[in-house]
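FAQ: What does the model actually see?

It sees only this:
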Amino acid sequence: MSYRRVIGIGETILDILFQGREPVAAVPGGSSFNSIVSVGRAGVPCAFVGYTGADLVGRLTVDFMHENGVGTEYFQVREGERSALSLAFLDEQGDADYVFYKETPRAGASWQLPRLEADDVMLYGSYYAACSGTRPLVTQMLERAAEGGAIVYYDLNFRRSHQHELEALMPVIQSNFRQSTVVRGSADDFEVMYGLRDAEAIYDRHVRACCPVFVCTAGAGEVTVCSPAGTFRFSVPPVSDVVSTVGAGDNFNAGISCALIWEGVTKDALPSAGRDVWQRLVLTACRFAGEACRTTDNYISRDFGLRVSRRQG
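And it is asked to produce this:
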């Protein structure tokens, strides 16, 4: 197995899931956090850059990372900080409406950061990657990724709840585009941001000049990849037994990250990768996402992770 690894950076939050008025699960979450747990369960070397409060929720979060093969050497547990919570209310299709209880993210005075090597994968995104409180940390990580030659995978994940901040955040988002190897977003993200859902139009007008590779997802609809090598469209395999879609996008990202390493795809090779390469990457990503939809957890199951890991051994 390759010694390449995935480094995630982002927030941690305890997701409490409701069906109707009844709580049905409480699991550690956060967009990049969900991704990195699935990466760890799939047996790919990984670590997470983030923080939580020095409370019961924080201790559970750290223990959970240890149990799932995620390195915590760059993770902070902060005294005097309360861990974040979210309430996710699931509808009949497993889609969620959220209520968040958290403090404004902040980077802190000092941080031990990982060194990123050639063709490692840095996985980041969401509001955490654009807000002023954590921007200094994200900037340092992007600089390290550039110095080391790592693949930088940016998941926009722009929620409608932040639409009122869009004008202020747009310069930072565009800077993230320019510093990333792959930009991934959903059609919903770009409808909020640009009033567009067509992947080729989004790529031509807003992404191409900043980042060569763009991946656009549309839930159970098709996945579109736009790059200098062309535009490739892929159908999403149906998932008949959906319980929750909370972690679907995050696990799509985890699947892409693992597949980049398993398939031996390098940073330099990505812009010229053809349809056959992207078909393998997207298929793995969809399998990860589909697996996460079958449970109230935010990640692939341990059994699924073990199976895909054995196939690569």
